[in-house]
## 1
Amino acid sequence: MTTMLQDIVVKRNVPTNQYTPKDFKVDIDVRWCAGCGGYSILSQVQRIMPELGIPREKIVFVSGIGCSSRFPYYVNVYGFHSIHGRALAVASGLKIARPDLSVWIATGDGDCMSIGGNHFIHACRRNVDINVLMFNNEVYSLTKGQYSPTSQPGQKTKTSPFGVVDDPFNPASLALGAGATFVARGYDRDPKMLQYLFERAAAHKGISFVEIYANCVIFNDGAFDKYTEKEYRDDTTVWLEDGKPLIFGKNRDKGIILDGFTPVVVSFEDGNYSPNDVIVHNEKDSTLAFILANMTYNPNVPRPIGVFQSIEKPSYEEKVENQIEEVTKKLGEGDINHLMCGEDFWTID
Amino acid sequence: MTTMLQDIVVKRNVPTNQYTPKDFKVDIDVRWCAGCGGYSILSQVQRIMPELGIPREKIVFVSGIGCSSRFPYYVNVYGFHSIHGRALAVASGLKIARPDLSVWIATGDGDCMSIGGNHFIHACRRNVDINVLMFNNEVYSLTKGQYSPTSQPGQKTKTSPFGVVDDPFNPASLALGAGATFVARGYDRDPKMLQYLFERAAAHKGISFVEIYANCVIFNDGAFDKYTEKEYRDDTTVWLEDGKPLIFGKNRDKGIILDGFTPVVVSFEDGNYSPNDVIVHNEKDSTLAFILANMTYNPNVPRPIGVFQSIEKPSYEEKVENQIEEVTKKLGEGDINHLMCGEDFWTID
Amino acid sequence: MSKKVEHLDKVTIRFAGDSGDGMQLVGTQFSNTAGTVGNSVNTFPDYPSEIRAPEGTLYGVSAYQIHFGSKKVNTIGDKIDVLVCMNASSLKVNLPNVREKGIIIANTAGFGEKNLKLAKYETNPLDNGSLSKYQLIKINMSEMMKQELADLGISPKAVERTKNIFALGFVYWLFNRPLDLTEKWLKEKFANKPQILEANLRALRAGYNYGATRQEMIVQYNVHHADLPKGTYRNITGNEACAIGLVAAATKAKLPLFLGSYPITPATEILHFISGYKQFGVKVLQAEDEIAGICSAIGASYGGYLAATTTSGPGLSLKVEALGLAVILELPLVVIDVQRAGPSTGLPTKPEQSDLNIAYYGRHGEAPIPIVAASGAADCFAMTIEAARIALKYMTPVILLSDGYMAQGTEPWRIPDMNELPDLTVNFATDPETFKPYRRDPSTLARMWAVPGTPNLEHRIGGLEKEDITGLVSHDPLNHQKMVELRQKKIDGIANDIPLAEVEGEQSGDLLVVAWGSVYGPVKTAFDELREQGHKISYTHLKYIRPFPKNLGDILSRFERIVVPEMNMGQLADLLQSKFLRPVLRINKIQGMPFKAKEIEIKLLELLNNKGDK
Amino acid sequence: MSKKVEHLDKVTIRFAGDSGDGMQLVGTQFSNTAGTVGNSVNTFPDYPSEIRAPEGTLYGVSAYQIHFGSKKVNTIGDKIDVLVCMNASSLKVNLPNVREKGIIIANTAGFGEKNLKLAKYETNPLDNGSLSKYQLIKINMSEMMKQELADLGISPKAVERTKNIFALGFVYWLFNRPLDLTEKWLKEKFANKPQILEANLRALRAGYNYGATRQEMIVQYNVHHADLPKGTYRNITGNEACAIGLVAAATKAKLPLFLGSYPITPATEILHFISGYKQFGVKVLQAEDEIAGICSAIGASYGGYLAATTTSGPGLSLKVEALGLAVILELPLVVIDVQRAGPSTGLPTKPEQSDLNIAYYGRHGEAPIPIVAASGAADCFAMTIEAARIALKYMTPVILLSDGYMAQGTEPWRIPDMNELPDLTVNFATDPETFKPYRRDPSTLARMWAVPGTPNLEHRIGGLEKEDITGLVSHDPLNHQKMVELRQKKIDGIANDIPLAEVEGEQSGDLLVVAWGSVYGPVKTAFDELREQGHKISYTHLKYIRPFPKNLGDILSRFERIVVPEMNMGQLADLLQSKFLRPVLRINKIQGMPFKAKEIEIKLLELLNNKGDK
Ligand SMILES: Cc1ncc(C[n+]2csc(CCOP(=O)(O)OP(=O)(O)O)c2C)c(N)n1
Ligand SMILES: Cc1ncc(C[n+]2csc(CCOP(=O)(O)OP(=O)(O)O)c2C)c(N)n1
Ligand code: SF4
Ligand code: SF4
Ligand SMILES: [Mg+2]
Ligand SMILES: [Mg+2]
């Protein structure tokens, strides 16, 4: 008996306690360097997968090429290690064809924003329901250390021995400018944060873009220390929480206000400002999301981490299905014989 | 005697009165449909060219493929009609190699934002000094009428007989998100406006992106009438002028204020608001530029026309030249014999 | 008009006018009607490359040519028997192709001073005797329609627009063809515009009646209906045949259909048609570029769809990398390439057969892909089904080569019954006991197909070399050699599953013509003509190019000389030489235009007369 | 240690250890020293594909092989004479390739329990007698260095890191090689770290002295210097040779150099090197993808630069469309493709010769591009110059095929004097009287090159078909045919401007070996060996593939049998069959590894012994 695609598309019920993280581990060696930021991301993904209530066979990880793009080999779900830059194009086709699947992308700053930039912005525009985890290590690692579109000005790499002259993308701004509905940033060193962001991404319908600062110990070691290490991070980053004021600092004694449209740091110490004066985060406000995203490379303000924006829009694959339904309702289900004959046919006998 | 490239790179002096628009016309038929928006754009380009004070031989128009991309054939400067989507990649190489040239792009919404999207965002990021004129007709015309990434939801075209389900790019937002330094919008029906915008674009160092609403009489006739026709435009658009408040309306009796971060239309009639309350445009404010760009598809506010942003940053090709200069200063001019011998060589005799 | 009836086997009519004159429309109507009365029909629309060139210009002429007959017609006709020309430019451009004594029907209203100037005529050719070699019928169609519709009160522009229908009516009269098909079509088209409908119906009848009442004598050609096999027929373009073929293949495979594509002339209509088939549950992604087009199709194929991507040369060039991915993934994929004249942008609206090389050889690494080639518009349907069959059965991308000529020309197509089509049902893997991602069916060497959603078959695929059977990433040297050879063997093995090549004419002897693609029409016509003249010559038309039919080597070996006519510089000829080590003679035309049957006939005749000249 | 000196023509040493053990570094030092003393040298680094695989694992072994001799060595050596292994895994992985009686130098510190387990050894191979077929030298290098550097007070990690230099010192002693080159190099490298410098200098001498003072007897191989042509030499990888070649070509052309590229293994180093040449005024764009890489280069070429793009298979696949553009634009462009094993991502770090097809045939439309192929690391320089010469002289893109083997392996390169290189000066058009964009030089058929900035030569080029001479867009059918033929003729004509193919061995007879690319090394070695054994056999190595040398057909016709050894499924063989209609025998290896000379020798011997077997 042949199995039809319809049979496979039907969803199994999974009791929420069915899985443990171990069920998402694969029995092969993970071949990243010791200390690579990828390990933490992998663990957090494996940790939240059981919580999603999605049968394992319904989850697919698609990737391009890069150290980060080896990811699918290490998760025990369906995996597709495609070609450099094309993960989102492959995944878009898959998700449109199979809205029943939970589709994830593991990609790098090069894979996603350099060669894959076009598919990235178009996936954002269309709002296909895909969860994009971009491992940003600000370098091309698999090819052994060239600068990437997120490398910092002056950075020395094998292809910039005298320093990078390019200005980098600000990934969050690019995603927002392209129309992404869910945009977030996290880093490898904070497992709980990543779990939270991954769960939010999974819950969001439409494209979810999560930029993850991922340390590459070999080719760009310590690039994010300033933002991710315990001794600095309270003062160098600000955590975005919906409905909460933008307060930061070890003693939570600093906040961010707007001067005109320019974000400025104020201190609560001298009594000029209080927590009530600072910007309150609102994930639904697209303009605020831009303001926050633009803080990224601004040396005068802390770097925002968390969810920049989360707004609701119908997802692309849903609209595609709805149109098919509407048209079918209007025209009736397609009749292949009628299609073949067309309007003007004749018979010879 | 052979002419060396250096001889050609040297700039001729042109008396500012040397040219008239006729010098930029070509002796072949312009083969666009009667009524095509391209004609106006072409005329305005030809009109401002003499004003630039640039010798004709130093100007190059590069294009991709599309009705709009036929443009280079119609301007009597150097012209390069490349392949679909690649104009900016070609032009980037040309401008980096030849900073002495004034490099322009004629492109369409499909050429620039669909297949050419990646080169577009990277040119914006790098800030290569190129002037990009994007003829936005919200359709693929040369291929006879398919929807494009700027087509509107529900639009019926040959590939969307039941209406477009994609959400469009907002070109200004995309350019800003990618890091463009000069971003503007104009439309075919207003020659003076286009001349102004083209002159501004030419004067700006770094990438200049000008989106031009260009009517396609065949495949998307009247798409912009609401914004470009005399009877509507005063009420449906707002002209952005640096340092000036955002006032619009036939009687200039309406303005735009911010409610939180949301732009809202207010009327001066009932005395609740006065022109002093409204947003004042500032081309140097990136955040404001985003707020304005995001008004584009907001039905509750007029559509902004004019210069969204114009900020100064060193251009890419300049930085490349500077680095070469610095390195040369530090290491001395390269010696080919030394390069060939390397550090470890030996002699057999 | 009194008419002298002359019976002819085949007639070529060309409707020519300005881009806005509706020539495509009347051409299509005439060809449908001719089909309906049982003629064999072959047509080709001939647009200017500008979207809408200025009125009346030479480069703005739009034409539609119809070749129909009581015998099987295989080309659009070398010479025009009847030229309908709506203005001076359309006469100028097409006259060189009108045969002597042919009929020219001219709308005199299109020969005003301005028209003559635009057409670069010094004096009016309708009046200066220069057309004495032809039968000239001058009608002021615009004026006639003005009178005819005076009472309707519609705009002068709308009146002017009916003149093409008048011309059509007149041609119907000339060939004694019924009006009902066109009447029915007009009624549907203008259901909501009763006045325009009335105007057009009157125009049609006015044209017809004008013929019946005109005084002058004219020779009329009568064409009996053809002796076509029984069945239901329609006229179809190659592009529509591909579109319908994909839906039919999906139906037979019991799979949903996915098309990932990016518009490009002359392949875009496949995307147009399929975008209109939503009621079949078809999913279409008009992608951001050709790379996303094919990659999204690969994604959908991975998800268990019958997936396809459609394009033309420049787009195929962009799909090269992803094609290699599809090869190593061993997923089914139908790639339709509608060839146009290259290199680069080339002559984008003109046909050529110059993508065979890239289809065959155009991937880095060893990445064999089966290639099939349709021989004409109607055959596009059958070959689309074949492409899907091979893709699904052998788990491989397949390239179907069409070209701009067959893609846009029409032919009558005998509509097959769905039961006649091969069963394409696939077998998804479901059993965790036996499943291995690269375990192969021993007879086809196809690997197992397990789609996401299937419990306990979670596995990983990708572009890195795969270990045999397990599909794990493998850097093992011998495994690589084995996999390269396996992939090759799988494709080679398809030779056992395709029809043998057939030889028309002598089964062995002196001269064998080998051809592929849309040159079928002119070659077959020339070949039949030469056979009728008593020449000994043979013909094999190839629809399967990778692999070749098993018996092709044997066939070639039975002939002293082999000649390949192609619209390129000899791509099939080179391939045959490489595979079969036989010297191959060539007839190449690379002018963005199909061969004329006569051109081929003359070249073949030369060869037949110069036997020594090997 | 007492040593028994044995004189040998050629020796193969392999330094093997963990990825972090610095094997590439000591390998490079040894090979430079060997070169300096006048040996012929051929080397190859052998990295694991992981960036940094876990310590001590089998897949984390990194090695560097050096083949050097007093005769010309053309390969990296089939069998290892001396294996230096720093841990158990590196012994395990490399042992199968050590020849009987070969020397194994083992760092016993790398054979602890954990190491043995990771290497999947049950017992210690150094102690269980399993290595009795070899000469085993066990040294606890880590321990020796600990003692040696105890007084320096540097970190244990830093001490441990010197053990590779110790091993190098020992091997220098073994072959009686001078230390000075490495000492000089260390001094430069650690100029700012005096302690580390001291540690390394001590390590080097400690290794050397250890040999001199050790008690056991050992057979030492002595290798005289080779009889190389006079001149200045250096060791060079193919990638560096390409990089330097581009700068040299630009210098000879008196043009600035532009490189538009995107990183990809194994071509990236060309981009690395050139990114470091800013002081030569070189402009480099690390583009967003391969398409932008080539398109930016086309833009720079249009602007009057010597422009290049560098890539490997998947990148070449992406450049296909733009290559077609370059063909119709007729602009000079150097495209370097460093081949790796495909299809798709394949075996990205392994060499293969499987991009010949795509280089030759991989464009839509008729788009011929000249192809040249380097035969080894040093030859990459010469062929880069040739690629630039042809590109500039004929106004055409040119593809240079290298591969991952020659790209990363080294050979001694006789550094040419700049005066020996051909003059590549170009002639920009400047005269408005005579200028036409597609006017051609009658002898080369190259079109005129006018760059923006030249007054009064404003003109327009693009991807649409060009009118002959004027370069205007033309849809004229005959013009298209003419231009297609002209472009073909221009490329074909290059055959008059390249060296004739040469035959080594008999000039006619039974068996001719034809090869291309980096198989030169093993084929030449096998060929020389067979000749020495007295066999009648001939060899032609092709460095020009499109067009072929003019006399190639003639050469092939003088032999009864032709055989092509290739690291692919027979791409050159198929091409020869297609062009010359001669059956071609094949020796194919597609394992991501170069041929061994012995493999080829055996296959050729089989052919020589089975003459009937055609
Ligand atoms: C078409 C193509 N071009 C180039 C490459 C080479 N390549 C592989 S991964 C990579 C960059 C990876 O960078 P990123 O995405 O940041 O991943 P990382 O290794 O840093 O995680 C490149 C250039 C390739 N495999 N394919
Ligand atoms: C690689 C490639 N893909 C597709 C095409 C077909 N094509 C030519 S122009 C065009 C779209 C043009 O749209 P746009 O840029 O908006 O220009 P317009 O004609 O509307 O001015 C397409 C899809 C092509 N020429 N090359
Ligand atoms: S090279 Fe960098 S990114 Fe790659 S595995 Fe190692 S640490 Fe991770
Ligand atoms: S089709 Fe539209 S865009 Fe193209 S020339 Fe005509 S009006 Fe202009
Ligand atoms: Mg990275
Ligand atoms: Mg457009």
Note: The longest helix of chain C spans residues 194-213.
## 2
Amino acid sequence: MADEIIERFEVRYLQAVDESGNADPILIASVSDEEIKRSFESIILTRTFNQRALSLQREGRIGTYASVFGQEASQVGSALALEKDDWVFPSFRETGVFLTMGYPIWQMFRYWAGDERGMKIPPGLNILPMSVPVGTQIPHAAGAAWAMKIKGRRAAAVCYFGDGGSSRGDFHEGLNMAGVFNLPAVFICQNNQWAISVPRRSQSAAKTIAQRAFSYGFDGVQVDGNDAVGVYVATKAALEKAKNKGGPTLIECFTYRLDDHTTSDDASRYRSKEEVEEWKGREPLIRLRLLMRKMGLWTGEYEKAAIEKARALVDRAIEEEEAYPPPKPEDIILYTNAELTPRQFKELKEFGWRK
Amino acid sequence: MADEIIERFEVRYLQAVDESGNADPILIASVSDEEIKRSFESIILTRTFNQRALSLQREGRIGTYASVFGQEASQVGSALALEKDDWVFPSFRETGVFLTMGYPIWQMFRYWAGDERGMKIPPGLNILPMSVPVGTQIPHAAGAAWAMKIKGRRAAAVCYFGDGGSSRGDFHEGLNMAGVFNLPAVFICQNNQWAISVPRRSQSAAKTIAQRAFSYGFDGVQVDGNDAVGVYVATKAALEKAKNKGGPTLIECFTYRLDDHTTSDDASRYRSKEEVEEWKGREPLIRLRLLMRKMGLWTGEYEKAAIEKARALVDRAIEEEEAYPPPKPEDIILYTNAELTPRQFKELKEFGWRK
Amino acid sequence: MAKINMVAAINQALAQEMERDGDVVVMGEDVGKDGGVFRVTEGLLDRFGPERVMDTPLSELALVGCGVGMAAYGLKPVVEIQFMAFAYEAIEQIYSHATRLRARSRGRFTCPLVVRTPYGIGIKGPELHSESSEALFCHMPGIKVVVPSTPYNAKGLLISAIRDAGPVVFLEPARLYRSIKSEVPEGPFTVPLGRAEVFQEGKSITVIAWGTMLHRAVEASEGFDCEIIDLMTLKPFDEETVLNSVKKTGRAVIVHEATRYCGLGAELAAFLAEEAIMHLKGPVKRVASPDAVVPMAALEDYYVPTAGRIRKAFEEAMKY
Amino acid sequence: MAKINMVAAINQALAQEMERDGDVVVMGEDVGKDGGVFRVTEGLLDRFGPERVMDTPLSELALVGCGVGMAAYGLKPVVEIQFMAFAYEAIEQIYSHATRLRARSRGRFTCPLVVRTPYGIGIKGPELHSESSEALFCHMPGIKVVVPSTPYNAKGLLISAIRDAGPVVFLEPARLYRSIKSEVPEGPFTVPLGRAEVFQEGKSITVIAWGTMLHRAVEASEGFDCEIIDLMTLKPFDEETVLNSVKKTGRAVIVHEATRYCGLGAELAAFLAEEAIMHLKGPVKRVASPDAVVPMAALEDYYVPTAGRIRKAFEEAMKY
Ligand SMILES: Cc1ncc(C[n+]2csc(CCOP(=O)(O)OP(=O)(O)O)c2C)c(N)n1
Ligand SMILES: Cc1ncc(C[n+]2csc(CCOP(=O)(O)OP(=O)(O)O)c2C)c(N)n1
Ligand SMILES: [Mg+2]
Ligand SMILES: [Mg+2]
């Protein structure tokens, strides 16, 4: 007979740089000045893109857009840890990841203008088109990681999703597969505390999302998602582990969505101004600036130059994007299958899209 | 900055009666002699049914059948803890639960003979038809528990599923709902260590299934599933908690499937005789007999009488079942909707099932 | 009578049925505080409280799965799926459970569940926000599939759906939510399920359509003498109304947003090929979307039937 | 040439394609050590090892979802779903991802994934072991749906499916697994997708069928002069072969196991109502299952078309 404890778990929380810009000497030790500067500049670029996308949407020049304001550290910090052969499986709110990976900016705008060509990923860039059905990309990442293992590649698959996404069956089944087959996968949950109007506490009764990793027999860690350095360090460690046959990791980036869910949403219907204001005070650029100032890496001119550069890039991209010819109706049919079906053949003619 | 532990979990293991029949005095304190005898007798009944079902299948008198040999303590022990207003959501391997609840035995045979009328649950008995798609009944239990809460009933929904079932999206989404809405639900996983040929360790890399409860913010406990008393105590506690607004519980009954998966399976293809033999030595009746002997509740005559009684019941049920008229083809159509569709109306005539 | 739009009409139907029957509950993502992303459930939370209007986690499988359990227990859940594509995760719960519970238990348990979801093109949203996969649900025995085309029938059909003894998939054409208004009685009323309606009388061509395409067919019919049938209930459809009209006109054109292959148009045309072939003057025409993935916003207007494509079908039909 | 059954033929196809192409992997529940519940994958684990033959957890959604990720990365996964009904949880992964990956990425990523599953009645198994819901998949653009009817074409079609550039749903009629044998070449060969076959020539009635029902139609055709077409690829079907035959016979009967409403028979009949109406002497007949939930074993033989029901349709067709 017995009434005993047979297993124990602990949830770890990581923050490399606090809100005042103080760094944990151990955690930051492996991070170079260059990397910190790249984080800062990538956040600036992301934010610049984001602001322009919001205005273009208001002007009717692109469609519904999902802002990443507030979450840039989670996206940029993690994306900077990627290596060339890693594959990324994003949700629809990963602008910072795309841009940090060097995705053509004009294509990002094209995508949000409702054009599939915006997600015709250039060769050499290993990121899948954004997944709109929440959480459904999670098993894809597990599958790609599995393929890497089977093919003996030294690489990892990285999957991004939100707190809402962690409630889906795809999360459970995907992470469980990753655990069973010890796959080189990193699951990054941006817990921005809201799934449209549903607050994090109503998404699950569990205290953290990180602890869900225990269900699958691997590690989970919660990171301050507004701390680009912390996210970078955690992601890098998880990627290393994955590539050394250490299996998957679940990283919960604890962050906040500062804007409306998308441009179709009005967040004032369901959350208070005060809450938003409080989190604005914690947005990721502030602390990176403070850190960099302490490290002697930041000056007003430096930031100004970074902003100018980002603006120029984004401006040029918008020009490119808007000069791009509109998609052809026949593409609807042409890209569905490798070869046309008899019906498609007829339809191209019927609709006047082919002679 | 921080690198700290923000949450801790412990997985509890319960065994009220060990393999030699020694009882934990605290755990067994609340269990009456009557309850122990009922467990014993219900296991005998279940086993008698099970043996007869296996022979009937061999003789071609019923179809594929899923044996419960080895798992009777998990089923009987938990079912004995149920109250009249509780609802049960079973998988296809819950003979012991049905019989302990007083389900008409002839109907059980009818069901396995491929007749829906076998699952026309009699009024007053709150158990759903067995669910064949693994795990899919889990959200139903959460839904019924939710309805109980909404309607203000003092009752709980109890769901049975296997270790394989815990890998499904239904498990994750269902348990998460139960956690968020603090529903009066008890989730009973019979971890019989096999999902057809897939061993438990290949089903998940997590050490226990019980620990998955932490993902949903409620308690999980592992119980020796071959210990009817332990299962009874754990289920009773979970039901009490549920009815006192304490929310859901996940109970993992650690047990073993001693027979083939079903009569269509040949387990010798994927597991060793030794393993099976070892677990046969731990089958639930042995230890209950030892316990009861120590308590002065068992004699050879008592057991013999119980077996005779069970045989008589099962024999009569088989007679009843086999005398029952076969189902009518028109029932295929009649029970699909509350009212016939125009097509169904025509079909009844076309097929010659109605004038 | 007040002229209201479809959002208001559906909202009325929900509120009035909740008022009338304490077992009716509403659940979904963002249906409570936010009032639904289309504001269809606006005000319900305030009026009926969080025990009957439930904002849930992002779990479509469990939304429907819990709905099945609630319905079996005696509630009448109305589940909102935020967009039609997100119901796909719940197809097993619908197909293996909701539609079969009555048959599997030989009537002991039933599943009076309504799954509401906006569908079709119209809002120029992101990918997978413009699905019209009604045929998948129409193929399932044991379920009804309903599409309103006006505020009036949206209210009446939804009330019927909530009162129905079995599961109903209720598809709300997103494009029509706010684009048309009609007179709608203030109190509760029903429009029967299983009945189509002759939306516009005519003698030469029977046109069968529903939802958004009904209005487009009307628009395209100028200059043709079309009898336009609003199908409303897609499963089971009203064979009598369809057949009577085709017997009269001798010509049939079916218009739908969904891709053609195995769409509901196929069932309608097959029905006519079996039951009305001797009355048909020429081929049964289907105007549908191509055998292609639903495109994103920039191309979606080319994907679904245009008035031009519909007119062409009318012209061809009139050649016989 | 050896005469073998369908299980052996499919096993050969898998083994030979795995031999030929190191990117082909097999995964599913019980496909490894157990060799699959129908023994279709027997011996593959021993031959190709656990990195290419994977026994997985009980997770159909992830089986297909991981398959999509593997395919995108460059493998050619062959996923086994143990019975057709258990694919329903994975419908979102098939419909929202597998079928759309090429279109969504404008060709950058593709999804050469095969989802194999036994289907239809025949084994008198428990509930949900007798589904024939092929129409759901046929309605999805961007996918092929294939059903073999003999060991020979099972092998040839599966090899084609594995080599195909896109996703294929490959449905194996459980009743035919061991009930018929045919001569099958030992080495790899292909039967092209998208092509039907005239299984039996005739002049009076065109009969369109596939899988189990093909053989039942042949059985029922005694005494009639039927031209029986084995459709084999259900999506996209071979319009030419069907049309040529109907032009010749002037009569069409479609036989399938699935429920009639919105089944694939509807698409075939609708196609004929549009393209062949001027050649048809009488109604296009569908012999299908009723608008009812698939029953359990005791009644399943009453559910699917019987030879008697098929003969009745032939008789009615011959009245015109
Ligand atoms: C499966 C699915 N259900 C519903 C939606 C509609 N929807 C879009 S985003 C969203 C909330 C997502 O929350 P979360 O996963 O936390 O991501 P976030 O938006 O916060 O980045 C919802 C409900 C969807 N896109 N997919
Ligand atoms: C969704 C689904 N997938 C596959 C099957 C086929 N199948 C029947 S039982 C079984 C294993 C179930 O394992 P577990 O959940 O541990 O229950 P047990 O059989 O051990 O009682 C499988 C794969 C099924 N019935 N449902
Ligand atoms: Mg979120
Ligand atoms: Mg098991």
Note: Residues 99 and 327 of chain A are 23 Å apart (CA to CA).
